[in-house]
Each structure stands twice: as structure tokens, then as C-alpha cells.
Design a protein that fits this description.
Layout (H helix, E strand, L loop, with lengths): L1 H13 L9 E6 L4 E4 L15 E6 L2 E5 L3 H4 L7 H9 L7 E7 L2 H8 L7 H4 L1 H6 L14 H11 L11 E4 L3 E6 L2 H21 L3
Antiparallel strand pairs: 1-2, 1-5, 2-3, 3-4, 5-7, 6-7
The structure holds zinc ion (ZN).
Amino acid sequence: MLETICEVLLESYKRNWSTSRDSNVSIRHWDRDHFYITPTGVRKQTLQPDQFKKIKIVGNDWQELPYTDISANLKPSGELPLHLGLQRNMGQHKEVRVVVHVHATYCVAAMHAGIELNDLVKDFPELGRYTKVAPNVPDVAPISQELADACHKNLELDEYGNIKYDIVGIKGHGVVSVDTSPWRAFEHVERLEHICKIVLVSNKG
Ligand SMILES: [Zn+2]
């Protein structure tokens, strides 16, 4: 599935959900004590599967595992705390959990305009059929434990890894979506981005 993540990152880049070196994705299979995460500082539209970082979960901490020669020279995404908290226990995503973080343009614009993303389901009920949107996370510093904690709190992550929502917006920054495959996580962003675009184009936000 690392190849699929690369495809998702390329598609996200084409849709202006990210500039070259932003965005990060992790994936864990339930029967393994490690997960894979995208490296930091690498162009995501040309990312290759052998550039991923392999991260072992050690209690509340983590440690790097050897993977490939190329990846040995890279560092894991700065948003590792965000991913680690969601990958430590997988909750309802029993077999695979994929966490996608991108800077989707219209989602960020809508939050910048003061829109609560989870309010949009009132006017656009179709959104809520397949995607549960969490309350916005306010301004928090990127690549911080504070960002990770705020996202986990608003997704209502519990000690077993269950989450109540599929996607959460971070004001002035981006979104985090979670599902059982890279494309399913992608679709939560796509669905929310589409509605945010409609709202902003209508000038009735
Ligand atoms: Zn970001």
C-alpha cells in the first residue's frame, strides 16, 4: 500500500492540497508493532515507497527501524506525534489504519473565514453520509505535541484507539483524515474540500 500512498500524495499535489514538501501520511497493519510514515523534507509528488520511514511503537514512544538504504538518510515527518497517537492503537479500523495530513486549500480557506467545518453538514447533509467531521482545532503550532494532542482530542481518540470522527480541520493549517485505506482517507478530504469550495464560491459562508 506504500505505492498507493505515493499515488494519493501525487493526486493531492495536483489538486493543490499541498505544496511540494508539505503533507504526510502513515499506515499501520493491525498485526504489526510498527508503522510506515512519509519522510520530512522530500517532494511528495515524486515520493517512492523505498523513501518511507519504518517506526516501531514502543509504549508511548517510538524508535526507528531499518528499512532501506535510501530511507536511512531521511528523517520521519515532523508531524510524527500526530501519527503516533493515532497508530498506537487502531480502534475501529481493525485491519489497517491510514492517517493523511494535507493542506487542502478550500478547507483551510473556510476555517480562515471563520467557518466551523462540522457545521457544514447542516446545510449539506450528503457530506455527513460518509464523512464525520470533527470540530475545528484552533491555531496551534505546526509539528508540535500541542497540535497532535488537539487533533486527538477533537477526533475523540480514546485509549483503545477508537475515534468518533473521520476528519478534523486545523485552523490556519490543514486537515487530518483517517480510514482503512489511502484512497478512503483521501475521499474524506475530497468530500469536505468540495463542500468548502461550494460554500466559499457562494459567498454565503
Ligand atoms: Zn501540515
